[in-house]
Amino acid sequence: MTPRITELTRESAAELAAKSGVPAYRAKQLLAWVFGRGVLDPSRWTDLPSGFKDAVGAAYATGDPAVTAVETDPGSTTEKFLLDVGGAETVEAVLIMEGDRSTVCLSTQVGCPVKCGFCASGLFGLKRNLTRGEILDQYLAIRNRAAALGRPVTNVVVMGMGEPMLNLGNLLPALATMNDPDGCGLGARHITVSTVGVAKGVERFTEEPRQYTLAFSLHAPDDALRGEIVPFPAAMSCAEIVDAAHRYLRAKGREVTFEYVLLDEVNCRPSHARALAELLRGVRGTVNVIPFNEVPEQPFRRPSDRVIDAFSDDLRARGLKVTVRKRKGHDIAAACGQLRLREKSKPAP
Ligand code: SAH
Fold first, then answer.
1. How many Å apart are CA 320 and CA 274, to the nearest integer?
2. Whose CA is nearest to atom 1 of ligand 1?
3. Domain region containing 197
4. What sign does the CA torsion over 106, 112, 116, 120 have?
5. Are residue 290 and residue 189 in the same domain, yes or no?
6. What's the pTM?
7. Which CATH number is 35's domain given?
8. What one-character DSSP code corresponds to residue 321?
9. Which of 14, 45, 47, 143 has fewest C-beta within 10 Å?
């Protein structure tokens, strides 16, 4: 199958330029069109010679990514996109607009093998890894949409479907292109990758010199409870995550984030706050408290605002840095995997 134009690399662009007999700077111009400007249609590459455009068009499938559904929440702060990745499969990507910030949330896999008890992404298991180009397609589709709304993309969070650390082979090259000045040019510190903690991947991610932000989906203060919420045998233990956070700080000078989804009656009692403060004592990082977005298929409930406030205040009083994620995209099912789930359950046309 012809690869998507977003699979283009510096090397393959240079090769195509050489084969087409055009000077090397044409390759750079091509990359600027594709990743710098997100223009994926050769007819709009106005400063490139037609012979070169034809060669690119023959080697790659050009044109915009196949967005099959877009949903906007009533407050217009969140837009959710479903991208067709072939084989009757789709992945989700989200644009979140908040003040001056416009954040793109990206998926790394079709489905997810982790199967966190509260998350819709794993309900059908893992289908496959996304390629570098499919990850970049999500970014470019949303960046173009955001630009049309007059909102330059400021941040990327890899918190969509899938476990990023199980697809670093494609994710790291995609992020490198997003980060490179002659790619998309987004600052590494504005790119956050979220993981349940897969030891080998986290190690590799820590060795990667780019200054990405690392987030751990912790969700519980001890291994027993965490094992129930994140039933993934390969997930790191709480102690291993704490160690990895220290290592990340040493290696990159970057504090990590701990995501903690609040599930009513499950992980947000005062005893959990106490245990969490104990676990994270002396760790430089921020706890991001995330009130659960209810998924009908899941047994969990969102706690009341009173419980959310009490839990976060308790952590603060115990010396932790805490942020509470605002309710976003609730009405359009923006929590991981929810839109795809709904589209999957629709009767076939
Ligand atoms: N596998 C990686 C990347 C997925 S992002 C990881 O687990 O980190 C996972 C994040 O999605 C969770 O930390 C949580 O913040 C969010 N999430 C998923 N489903 C949710 C739901 N129903 N309500 C609130 N947040 C949810």
1. 11
2. 163
3. 67-344
4. positive
5. yes
6. 0.95
7. 1.10.150
8. E
9. 47
Pair type for strands 256-262 and 213-217: parallel
Q: What percent of the chain has pLDDT over 70?
A: 94
The gap from C-alpha 70 to its chain's centroid, in whole angstroms, comes to: 18
Put residue 61 in one of left, alpha, beta given phi > 0 → left and psi -120 to 50 → alpha. Answer: beta
Tell me, what amino acid is at 315? L
Q: CA distances (Å), 61 to each of 7, 67, 68, 81, 151, in order?
A: 10, 15, 18, 21, 28
Assigned token pair, 286: 């921020």
Return the active site residues.
Answer: 92, 336
- What is the C-alpha separation between 55 and 10, in angstroms, rounded? 16
Cα of 217 from ligand 1 centre, angstroms: 7
3-class SS at 346?
coil
What is the predicted pLDDT for the residue at 28? 97
pLDDT tens digits along 265-293: 999 999 999 999 999 999 999 999 999 98
Q: Count other C-beta atoms under 10 Å from residue 249's C-beta.
A: 17
Q: In this structure, is residue 281 part of a structural domain?
A: yes
Across residues 291-299, what is the average pLDDT? 84
Tokens coding 291: 């009130």
What is the C-alpha to C-alpha distance for residues 95 and 147, in angstroms, rounded to an integer? 11
CA of 335 to the centre of ligand 1 (A): 7
Q: Could you tell me if 173 and 27 lie in one domain?
A: no
Structure tokens at 191: 């790119």
Separation of alpha carbons 40 and 67, rounded Å: 14
Q: Could you tell me if 230 and 163 lie in one domain?
A: yes
User: Ligand 1 pocket: which residues have CB below 6 Å?
Assistant: 114, 118-119, 159, 163-164, 194-196, 217, 259, 261, 290, 292-293, 295, 335-336
* C-alpha closest to that of 126 among 142, 140, 107, 104: 107
pLDDT value at residue 345: 62
- How many independent structural domains does the chain possess? 2
Query: 349 in a domain, yes or no?
Result: no
